[in-house]
Design goal:
With 172 residues, the chain is an all-alpha fold. Helices cover 65% and strands 0% of the residues. It has 4 helices and no strands. Helix 1 runs antiparallel to helix 2 and helix 2 packs parallel to helix 4. The N and C termini lie far apart (47 Å). The mean pLDDT is 87.
Length: 172
């Protein structure tokens, strides 16, 4: 009797609670956007009207979807990277370039954090035209984005390299 061996399927690493919460938030945001836009398209073409608040809702959901998705992609090592130079280097030169690039990215995130905080403060007393929510909610997305990417950058520095797609996160 012969048995046919099936190729092993890669085991998906277990996701942490924050990862699952972030992915759930992205699903909710994307679902809300799809429903809002679809309803407005149907209303515009079928009844020559629309629900104006749905435009503001979908815009706000899109901003948060991009911010959260960027953090998740960076944490999982699935973000876009430009490694034409670093992939050709070895040893100390590669490590030094890694540290320089991480510190420069961190400096950019600190600037984004400062600017976002100022926008949150400025938007706290400004309100959206239709729904009347504080505009700080939109600016808060970049605030969360900068903090999330700073955390990912610190984790990469502790690990000593950027997380590649499929790597497990092991901090010892």
């Amino acid at each position: 009797m012969s048995t046919v061996e099936m190729p092993a399927t890669p085991v998906e690493p277990t996701k942490t609670l924050p990862q699952r919460v972030a992915e759930l938030a992205m699903v909710v945001a994307l679902g809300g956007m799809v429903i809002a836009v679809f309803v407005n398209v149907v209303l515009r073409y079928a009844f020559a009207t629309s629900i104006v608040s749905y435009e503001e809702i979908s815009r706000l959901l899109f901003v948060w979807l991009v911010a959260i998705g960027t953090i998740v992609a960076a944490f999982e090592g699935k973000h876009l990277g430009f490694d034409m130079l670093t992939s050709r280097l070895k040893g100390p030169a590669r490590k030094a370039l890694f540290w320089v690039s991480q510190l420069l990215a961190g400096a950019c995130m600190v600037l984004l954090l400062i600017g976002s905080w100022e926008q949150v403060l400025a938007g706290w007393n400004s309100y959206s035209t239709v729904l009347g929510y504080p505009l700080a909610l939109g600016a808060a997305a970049t605030l969360v984005l900068s903090v999330g990417l700073l955390v990912v950058g610190v984790l990469d520095l502790v690990r000593g390299r950027a997380k590649a797609h499929g790597d497990e996160l092991h901090l010892e």
